Hints:
Strand content: under 5%
Largest sheet: none
Helix content: over 70%
Radius of gyration: 24 Å
Oligomer: single chain
Number of strands: 0
Structural class: mainly alpha
Number of helices: 9
Amino acid sequence: MRIPSSPALQPAPRSASASGRALRRFLRLFAGAGRDLAPLIGVVAFFQFVIFRQPLPDFESILLGLVFVVLGLAMFIHGLETSLFPIGEDMANALTAKASVPWLLVFAFGLGFGTTVAEPALIAVAGEAGKIAAEAGMIEATPAAIEHWSNRLRQVVAVSVGSSIVLGVMRIIRGWPIHFIVIGGYMVVLVMTAFTPPEFVGIAYDAGGVTTSTITVPLVAALGVGLSTGIRGRSPVTDGFGMIALASLFPIIFVLGYGMVS
């Protein structure tokens, strides 16, 4: 007599199979992250052992830290693929389906502002800029003044990125050519550089780079691809990309302007 299988035990093989696939996928990501970091490791090892001819201090700790770096990079990539990219594309598709341009622009500004304020690279650069501004006598050399100046700089950069995402969304909707916007923007940058106090020029140019980093890029890229996919007549290849370029350009303009008026 055949004993029927218990319904409660039937999902187990599927669950085990899904867990095995997830584990294999993460191991592939871990191997890929190690492969991506291999050139950097090779350069450091070459200079340490061949040029400097010195052993690595505390080799065990360095090796353990390197494993953590590769593990963290693999987890970050996995998080992007399973969370940030799908969220950005789904929200862009939902707003496109509602055909509500005002809400789409509000969402674009909020996305740019929110991701930039939380950008770790911008927080670090703004903090260092505040210290340098205090040493240069631009602000009072007190912790409160430095923190206030750094937060104000972060807010200026966040507003600039939000504005750039709004322009990028309008570019996709209207079909504007991106090269005219980028060329015109950098011409404005060159003119403003001549009239901005020298203390702000370097900060402005660095602000354009640090904003397009860990948090901002995945969500902004997903928004552009999802939006161009949902709009008839737009191509994700030719129209979905380019927002990152605007997100790098606008902080330079806004910080230069902030330096001119402050």
